[in-house]
Each structure stands twice: as structure tokens, then as C-alpha cells.
Amino acid sequence: MATFDQLVPVGKKFASPARTIGDGDFAQLHNLTWTTNDIHTDQELMRQTQFGERLLAGVCTLACMEGLELAGGFRDVLYGEHTRPVAHLGFEEIRFTAPVKPGDTIRVESEVLSVRPSSKNPRRGVLRVGIEVLNQRGQQVMKGTEVQLLELTD
């Protein structure tokens, strides 16, 4: 039987396609997450700030990251020939490092940092993935570590 380090190589990198966050996306993301603070919704107020525009809420950037990450090939790790996801255990040290505005284009770069057997069940493994979200200028807008629980299927 294969081990987690054989199935999920540490250091493996993934790059997602890019996605432009249009006005419709911006409004829908904020409505779905109920993040309706003035910095996200009041265009006139935000024109008078250093940002000059509304800002996408961090939780919305995080949600977009999840989808983009899967589109960049990471899904093949989770749903591999011999693995499947059990649970998303969470995030470590998520940081929003620059604003995302309507019209920005973001993409995700991720890398397998570690994988180890679970201490409670050797058929399960804890996967840590480093994540970086970049805008159209290559500027980092979010970084952190995602933790997943995988299971061997055979």
C-alpha cells in the first residue's frame, strides 16, 4: 500500500487560472457573506480614502481562493487515485496583505508543505498547503496555510 508521502509529494506546486472580480461578483460575494460594511458597499465614501474604491472583504478573497485553488490542479491531490478528502480542518495564519478591488484579477499559487499520517488513524493523513493569492500586478493580496484531512481509499 502506498504511503501519503508517495501519493502527495512535499514541494509539489500548483498554479490556478486567473479570475477577474467584476462588479457583479463583488456584489454577490458581499451579499452571500453579509459583509456589508461601508468599506465594501459605499463607493462615494471610499473615493475619499487612500484606496479610492470599495474593497473586497477578506472572507470573500478567501472564498475565491478556495475555488481557484481547486481549478489549479489541487483537486487531483484531494481526489487522487488512492486518496479522498475527509475534512477541511482549517487555516493557519491567514493574512490579507493588500486590498482587492472591483476589476482586480486574482490567481492562486499553492505548494504542499507537509503530509503526515494522522495520530488517530493511519489510513488518514494531515495535509498542509501553503497558499498565496496574487493580483494582476503579481502583488500578494493574501497568504496562509490550509490544512486538510485525507483518507487512503485502498
Textual characterization of the structure:
It is a single chain. The chain is of the alpha+beta class and 154 residues long. It has a single domain (4-21, 56-152), classed as Hotdog Thioesterase (Thiol Ester Dehydrase, Chain A, Roll). Helices cover 29% and strands 36% of the residues. The protein has five helices and six strands. It has helices at residues 4-7, 23-33, 38-41, 43-47, 58-78; strands at 13-15, 19-20, 83-96, 105-117, 124-134, 140-152. Strands 1, 2, 3, 4, 5 and 6 form a six-stranded antiparallel sheet that branches. It is elongated and about 60 Å long. The N and C termini lie close together (8 Å). The model has no long low-confidence stretch (mean pLDDT 90).
Say which CATH homologous superfamily is assigned: Hotdog Thioesterase
Q: β content, as a range?
A: 35-45%
Shape category: elongated
Total helical segments: 5
The residue-averaged pLDDT reads 90
Helices and strands, in order, run as HEEHHHHEEEE
Task: Summarize the model shown.
The protein has 154 residues and is an alpha+beta fold. The radius of gyration is 18 Å and the shape is elongated.
Topology record:
Layout: H1 4-7, E1 13-15, E2 19-20, H2 23-33, H3 38-41, H4 43-47, H5 58-78, E3 83-96, E4 105-117, E5 124-134, E6 140-152
Antiparallel strand pairs: 1-4, 2-4, 3-6, 4-5, 5-6
What descriptive keywords fit this protein?
six-stranded antiparallel sheet; 154 residues; alpha+beta
